[in-house]
Amino acid sequence: MGTLKDQKITLNDGTETTMGQWADKLLLVVNVASQCGLTPQYEGLQRLYEKYQDRGLVVLGVPCNQFKGQEPGTDAQVCAFVQDNYGVSFPLLAKTEVNGENAHPLYRELKSATGGAEIQWNFEKFLLKIDGNTIERFAPQVEPESEETVRAIEANLPL
């Protein structure tokens, strides 16, 4: 995954950048959806971000509509929903496919680095460093503030 930092991404507001903007950070990359039973996980993701952002954690939300159409809105609607309902201040990407032939290259790399399995559902989480280390992959049902997630984050914070 040495090329992860060069991976092109589009933020929710249409800004194009690369994953390299977080080269010195620990990332928790999560495919998210607004109309899912797991949507309340946004609360835990936001709390993690607030607690650890000063120590180098970035939560990166990746809206995806591939699981029963549970993210049907536009990028602007997704952003407004998560800000209004969950106070989300961490970065969001533009809506992205995570599985199949149109899966974003970022997700192809993340899946490859963790055994190749497809994304199971909304709110699957990857903890990684841009330098090429994918540290952990967490199933959708694993809460953001679970003991195993927090332990992995604290063990790998850059600051």
TrEMBL record:
- A Pfam family cross-referenced in the UniProt record is GSHPx
GO molecular function term, any single one: peroxidase activity
Q: Which residues form the active site?
A: C36
User: From which domain of life does this come?
Assistant: Bacteria
Membrane among keywords: no
Keyword Protease recorded: no
Q: Name one GO biological process term.
A: cellular response to oxidative stress
Alphabetic keyword roster: Oxidoreductase, Peroxidase
Family annotation (CDD domains) = GSH_Peroxidase
PANTHER family assigned to the protein according to its UniProt record, in alphabetical order: GLUTATHIONE PEROXIDASE (PTHR11592), THIOREDOXIN_GLUTATHIONE PEROXIDASE BTUE (PTHR11592:SF40)
Spell out the family assignment given in the record's similarity comment: Belongs to the glutathione peroxidase family.
Instruction: Write the protein's name.
Output: Glutathione peroxidase
Q: Which organism does this record belong to?
A: Corynebacterium callunae DSM 20147
